[in-house]
Amino acid sequence: MARVEGSTGTSQSLERGLAILSSFDSNRPLIGVSELSRGLDLSRSTAHRYVATLAKLGYLQQDLASKRYRLGPKVLDLGFSAMNSMDLLELSAPHLRALSDETQHTVNLAILDGTDVVYVERCRTTRPGQREIDLNLHVGARLPAYCTAMGKAILAFLPEPRLEQLIEQIEFTQRGPNTLTDATAFRAELRKIRATGIAVNDEELAYGLRSIAAPIHSHSREALAAVNLAMHRTMGTMDELIERFGPAVAQAAHDISLSMGHRENRA
Question: In the prediction, which pLDDT does 28 show?
Answer without folding.
Answer: 87
